[in-house]
Specification:
Blueprint: H1 10-21, H2 26-37, E1 45-49, H3 56-69, E2 73-78, H4 79-82, H5 86-94, E3 101-107, H6 116-123, E4 130-137, E5 154-158, H7 164-173, H8 181-188, H9 192-204, H10 217-227, H11 237-245, H12 251-257, H13 263-271, E6 276-279, E7 282-285, H14 287-300, H15 302-321, H16 327-334, H17 338-343, E8 352-355, H18 361-368, H19 374-386, E9 391-396, E10 401-409, H20 423-432, E11 439-447, H21 454-463, E12 472-477, H22 484-490, E13 494-495, E14 501-503, E15 506-514, H23 519-531, H24 547-555, H25 560-564, H26 574-592, H27 597-611, H28 617-623, H29 628-649
Parallel strand pairs: 1-4, 1-5, 2-3, 3-4, 11-12
Antiparallel strand pairs: 6-7, 8-9, 9-10, 10-11, 12-15, 13-15, 14-15
Helix pairs in contact: 2-3, 7-8, 8-9, 10-14, 11-14, 11-15, 12-13, 14-15, 15-16, 15-23, 16-23, 24-29, 26-29, 27-29, 28-29
Length: about 650
């Protein structure tokens, strides 16, 4: 007798594949299963919040499968398809009124936010008693969900990025298990969407590796399509570029870096994007969206990206040297050299944090310390007991110890440090050089998380050492630690063998880094300038030019009588005063631009447009093989660069 098997459909295949690829989210799934199973559930309405690509829709589909396996009816509604009309939502839910138990999935809820009050007050109360509503959206739920009695049945889940282990499992579920996994995990930064796209790209192209070529155009196109609002075209490219380049966008940053634009409008437009969120006193862009948009900006307009990075660096430098030390984190964000970022960046802040010492930390660290580091640890342990303010602990989101540091300056070093086998000789050397500037010393900076917090420990050591702007940094380098010596060389630190410490036969090398007379902020700014192919700015003195002054000079660059009226002119006659201004501008033009092809093009545009002008700007654009729009865009950038350089360089001593 032949048995007829149930007919399988393409939908069944999609469902099976989606089920097999789901990974992670164990705690979230367990909580939502309890909401399905209990007669008195912990919540009846659950908001699932997170940026695009973090896996909200994937989690909804997994819970829908759990519900169907239990015989629970499922109603799935996507805000992108519903539209703003309340009647459509009501009609969809009325079909489920006869269900004994119901799971309602509302995805892309930010697209139906206008219906939020109507849904909560009018539709939700009439749904069956055993209804669970899952509301997935990029923004935070309206506060009304947690007042008026709703707080007793409402919960919120904030989805974070997948852990490294979960990310590896996701790649394995998609068939990728080779040596490229670690690089993809690092690049994706916990985003399930980025992991899935990268896995598909890696399987299709055996030669592709995220470590060497992360910005594949097809991956970027999908990320931009899936993550980014259509509202982006409404924002000026320069304002959007600031949000892409800078880690934290404040109103003051926009006002200072973008003169002539409306900072209030730009800030409001940026704050309304679903890919940004409040961050301290400003706002920040979700990291995955930033990666995609930054790569896109560099492909389409590298000149704008370079110019904005330089402008942000100048802004942070001016505020940092004025005393705002916390801006060192923002400054480090602009550095791109991976060797520098290995030991000095704030990349892990989403998953880790720097904390003070707690009871039991020393005992836990001793358990984690490798055998060859035990003597070093015994020297360090004294700081936990007698100078805990010199210690900081790196913890993950579960409060587990992931690393620690001990740092000090001459002013904050405890008295016993003078007799320390490691720090004692460093302190003595720092005192001998105290006339040149202050010093920061790391007694230890130990990472237990396979490199995830090493860079944060570097920045935290300076912020917590007690010196506002150290001239020197003493670095304890374990040559067996991968990347440690390379980092020291990359930042320009010099090995001082006489200050090495021998601990039970193992050598802890001392490298000293001289940040220069300007301190660490000037050192970081100069690093950024070098990456941009620009000469480091000279020491600032009396500012001589603002943007308006420079524009007037360029407009009249071939009109001696007008140039002679400039406040930058000096001399006793019209020709002499005009020539002094022309020489000042030519000198600034030679200094303000770097040697790269894009930098030379900016200089050529400035010369062809103003200093040695052709018969028209259109003729200059044609000579330089640029479209009219590209020519004027670069001309504006070049003029602003020239003005910034002239203001930073200051006036010659004999300027009247």
């Amino acid at each position: 007798m032949r048995v007829e098997l149930p007919r399988r459909t393409l939908a069944d295949r999609l469902e099976d594949r989606d089920r097999s690829r789901f990974t992670g989210r164990a705690d979230e799934v367990a909580f939502l299963d309890r909401c399905l199973d209990f007669d008195d559930p912990p919540a009846s309405a659950v908001h699932i919040c997170g940026p695009g690509g973090i896996g909200k829709s994937t989690l909804l589909r997994e819970i829908a499968r759990h519900a169907r396996d239990r015989g629970i009816r499922v109603a799935s509604i996507d805000g992108r398809e519903l539209g703003p009309a309340p009647g459509a939502l009501e009609a969809r839910l009325r079909k489920e009124e006869d269900a004994d138990q119901l799971l309602v999935l509302l995805d892309s809820y930010e697209r139906m936010a206008a219906l939020d009050s109507y849904f909560r007050q009018d539709l939700l109360p009439d749904l069956p008693h055993r209804t669970l509503v899952l509301i997935a959206g990029r923004g935070a739920p309206d506060p009304a969900w947690f007042t008026g009695g709703w707080e007793a049945v409402t919960a919120r889940i904030d989805l974070m990025g997948l852990s490294s282990r979960e990310a590896s499992h996701l790649l394995a579920a998609r068939g990728l298990t080779d040596g490229r996994v670690d690089a993809i995990v690092d690049w994706a930064d916990g985003s399930p969407l980025a992991l899935a796209l990268a896995a598909d790209a890696a399987i299709a192209d055996a030669d592709w590796n995220a470590a060497s070529a992360p910005d594949r155009p097809e991956i970027l196109r999908v990320l931009l399509h899936r993550l980014v609002d259509t509202k982006l075209h409404e924002i000026r490219p320069s304002a959007l570029g600031i949000a892409i380049v800078a880690r934290n966008v404040t109103f003051d940053l926009l006002r200072t870096v973008l003169p002539g634009e409306d900072p209030e409008l730009a800030y409001r437009q940026l704050s309304e994007l679903s890919i940004t969120e409040p961050f301290g006193s400003g706002l920040t862009m979700h990291e995955l969206a930033r990666k995609a948009l930054l790569a896109d900006l560099r492909q389409r307009n590298p000149v704008l990206e370079h110019d904005l990075r330089r402008r942000v660096a100048d802004y942070l430098w001016s505020r940092g040297t004025a005393g705002d030390q916390m801006l060192l984190i923002e400054m480090a964000h602009l550095v791109e050299n991976p060797l520098l970022r290995w030991g000095f960046s704030w990349d892990g802040y989403v998953s880790f944090r720097i904390d003070s010492v707690r009871p039991g930390d020393a005992e836990r660290i001793e358990e984690l310390t490798a055998e060859h580091e035990r003597l070093w640890w015994q020297l360090t342990r004294r700081y936990f007991a007698e100078a805990p303010d010199r210690v900081a602990i790196a913890r993950d989101l579960s409060d587990r110890v992931c690393g620690f540091l001990v740092s000090m300056s001459l002013a904050t070093a405890p008295a016993f440090a003078a007799d320390d086998l490691l720090a004692g000789p460093w302190l003595a050397d720092a005192r001998r050089n105290a006339a040149l500037g202050d010093s920061v010393m790391w007694h230890a900076a130990v990472d237990f998380s396979r490199g995830k917090v090493q860079a944060m420990l570097g920045i935290a050591g300076i912020l917590r050492c007690g010196s506002l702007s150290p001239r020197f940094a003493y670095l304890p380098i374990d040559p067996r630690l991968p990347g440690a010596v390379e980092f020291a060389h990359a930042v320009g630190a010099v090995h001082l063998p006489d200050l090495d410490a021998c601990l039970a036969g193992d050598v802890v090398q001392c490298y000293r880094l001289d940040y220069g007379p300007g301190g660490i902020f000037t050192f970081m700014r100069d690093q950024i300038y070098a990456e941009l192919g620009l000469p480091a700015p000279g020491p600032a003195c009396l500012p001589v030019a603002d943007l308006g002054t420079v524009r007037d000079i360029l407009k009249n660059f071939r009109v001696p009588r007008e140039l002679a009226r400039s406040r930058l002119a000096h001399g006793s006659s019209v020709p002499e005063r005009a020539e002094s201004v022309q020489q000042l501008v030519w000198r600034a033009t030679d200094e303000a631009f770097g040697d790269s092809e894009s930098e030379r093009l900016l200089r050529d545009v400035l010369i062809a447009g103003y200093l040695k002008p052709l018969r028209s700007h259109e003729a200059a654009a044609s000579k330089l093989l640029l479209s009219r729009a590209a020519y004027f865009r670069r001309l504006r950038t070049a003029v602003e660069r020239l003005a910034d350089h002239m203001a930073a360089a200051g006036a010659p001593a004999d300027v009247a």
